[in-house]
Structure formats: C-alpha cells, structure tokens
Design brief:
The protein has 113 residues and is mainly α. It has helices at 17-33, 44-53, 62-79, 82-92. Helix 1 packs across helix 4 (82-92) and helix 2 packs antiparallel against helix 3 (62-79).
C-alpha cells in the first residue's frame, strides 16, 4: 500500500499508476465520443453519468456519484466497437494488455544468506 501524506491523506507520487490510468481512460472516452464510428446512442451513457454527477444527492453523497460515473465510463468503453477502442488506445499509447503481459517472472535471493 502506498504511503500517504498525513497532511492531505493523498497517496504520495511514488505510485502514480492509478492517476495515469484514470487520465488515460478519460482521454479514451473523450476520443470515442468524437469518433463517428461509435453509435450515437452509446454516447448518451457517459454524458448521462456526467449529468448525474451534477444532480443533487439525497442519499450517499459523493460515493454514488463516483460509482455511477465509473460504471458509465466503463460500460461505454465496453459497448463501443473493440476495433475502434483498440485503435484509440494504440494512438494514446495505452494498448490493452493481456493478463500474461502483467505477470512478472522473477527469483528471490536473500542478501543475508
């Protein structure tokens, strides 16, 4: 778990991968919204999630807003044509990686022995 700065309780910049992934996802959604190959009706999903973000909350505060926004963006990308999504990911430099690409093969050696 990354260390937190006790002053503002945000993760230190030692692990910026969450923020990089968030920015990459937002850029991808923005590019897909502007792509004419994506169905016009699908574009209502992230727009609706964003509108929900600005409506008054009566129940859970910011937690439901974050969940609806995350679900809307995820659903939009998943429902877009995969070839179009891959094209935009490649253009952004964030190609989809398979689970095998995330596995690191390494050996552990104890320096003390």
């Amino acid at each position: 778990m990354p260390e937190t700065n006790k002053k503002n309780m945000l993760p230190d910049e030692g692990n910026p991968s969450f923020y990089n992934k968030l920015v990459s996802q937002l850029k991808l959604v923005w590019r897909l919204l502007g792509d004419s190959r994506v169905n016009f009706m699908l574009k209502f999903i992230p727009v609706g999630a964003l509108v929900y973000l600005f409506t008054p909350d009566l129940v859970l505060g910011p937690f439901d807003d974050a969940a609806v926004l995350a679900f809307g963006l995820y659903t939009f990308v998943e429902l877009c044509p995969q070839d179009v999504v891959e094209e935009h990911r490649t253009a952004l430099g964030t190609e989809a990686s398979s689970a095998a690409d995330k596995i690191v093969d390494a050996e552990f050696k104890d320096k003390n022995s």
